[in-house]
C-alpha cells in the first residue's frame, strides 16, 4: 500500500543518510515507526515499510492487509451493537498504545480505520492508518489540525485542546456514527450542540450501557470527559451483547 503526498506538506522529523545523501525523514513516517512495532502487522497500526522522495512528492510504502475495508463502509450497514463494541474495544486499546508511544494521531475517523478480515479470527481486526495530521505528544495544542466534524468543542471555546480528551471525543463520534447508521450525522455542524447529541443518543436502539458510554465521551468539559483508561474498564465492555461476525 502506498501514499503519495506533496513534499511541502510533509514535516521533517529527523535526518537520514540514503545513498550517501542527507534526506529529511517525513514526520508521518517517523510517527508510524514509533507506533507500529518491530514486525509487520504486530499491532493495530499499519506498518511502514519504506519511503522515498519523488522530487515534489514523498512516497510512503506501507503494509497492505490482504482482505480489508474502511470502517466508513460499515456506517450505513445493519451493524449490531456487539460487533461495534468489539471494534471500539480495539480502537481504545490502539489509542492507548499510540499515546504511550508518544504520538497523537489527531484525525481518528472511519475513513482512517481499516477493518481486516482473517479466517483465523472470529472478529475482524481494527487497523489504524494515515498519520498525516499526527504529531508528538505535548501538553496543550493550539490551532486544530484534523477533520473539522471530529473537532472537540474545547478547541473552539478554550482555544486549546489535549491529546487524551480529543481522542476520546473522536472515538465517541465514530461509535455514534456506527450506531446511528447515518453517514452524514455530523455534516450539519450540529456535533457541538449538546441537545442534538443527547437526543441522538437517546433515540439509539442500543443497550443502556452503550448509551452511558457514549454520553461519557461527549461531556463538553474535557476535564470531566471519560479518559481512555476509564473507557477500557467501562461496564459496556463487560456487558453481554455478543458480536455477530460479519464477512
From TrEMBL:
Top-level EC class as recorded in UniProt: transferase
Superkingdom: Eukaryota
Gene3D superfamilies: Phosphorylase Kinase, domain 1, Transferase(Phosphotransferase) domain 1
Molecular-function GO terms, alphabetical: ATP binding; protein serine/threonine kinase activity
SUPFAM superfamilies per UniProt: Protein kinase-like (PK-like)
Alphabetic keyword roster: ATP-binding, Kinase, Nucleotide-binding, Serine/threonine-protein kinase, Transferase
Keyword Protein transport: no
Protein name: non-specific serine/threonine protein kinase
Source organism of this protein record: Takifugu rubripes
Amino acid at each position: 500500500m502506498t501514499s503519495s503526498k506533496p513534499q511541502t506538506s510533509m514535516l521533517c522529523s529527523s535526518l537520514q543518510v540514503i545513498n550517501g545523501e542527507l534526506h529529511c525523514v517525513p514526520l508521518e513516517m517517523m510517527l508510524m515507526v514509533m507506533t507500529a512495532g518491530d514486525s509487520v502487522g504486530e499491532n493495530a497500526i499499519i506498518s511502514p515499510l519504506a519511503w522515498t522522495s519523488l522530487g515534489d512528492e514523498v512516497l510512503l510504502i506501507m503494509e497492505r492487509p490482504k482482505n480489508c475495508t474502511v470502517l466508513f463502509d460499515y456506517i450505513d450497514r445493519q451493524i449490531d451493537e456487539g460487533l461495534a463494541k468489539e471494534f471500539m474495544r480495539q480502537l481504545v486499546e490502539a489509542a492507548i498504545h499510540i499515546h504511550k508511544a508518544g504520538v497523537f494521531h489527531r484525525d481518528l475517523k472511519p475513513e482512517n480505520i481499516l477493518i481486516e478480515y482473517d479466517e483465523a479470527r472470529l472478529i475482524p481486526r481494527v487497523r489504524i492508518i494515515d498519520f498525516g495530521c499526527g504529531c508528538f505528544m505535548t501538553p496543550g495544542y493550539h490551532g486544530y489540525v484534523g477533520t473539522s466534524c471530529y473537532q472537540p468543542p474545547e478547541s473552539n471555546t478554550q482555544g486549546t485542546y489535549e491529546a487524551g480528551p480529543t481522542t476520546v471525543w473522536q472515538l465517541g463520534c465514530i461509535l455514534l456514527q456506527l450506531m446511528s447508521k447515518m453517514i452524514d450525522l455530523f455534516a450539519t455542524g450540529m456535533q457541538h450542540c449538546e441537545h442534538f447529541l443527547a437526543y441522538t443518543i437517546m433515540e439509539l436502539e442500543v443497550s443502556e450501557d452503550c448509551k452511558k458510554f457514549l454520553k461519557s465521551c461527549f461531556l463538553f468539559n474535557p476535564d470531566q470527559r471519560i479518559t481512555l483508561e476509564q473507557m477500557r474498564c467501562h461496564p459496556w465492555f463487560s456487558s453481554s451483547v455478543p458480536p455477530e461476525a460479519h464477512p
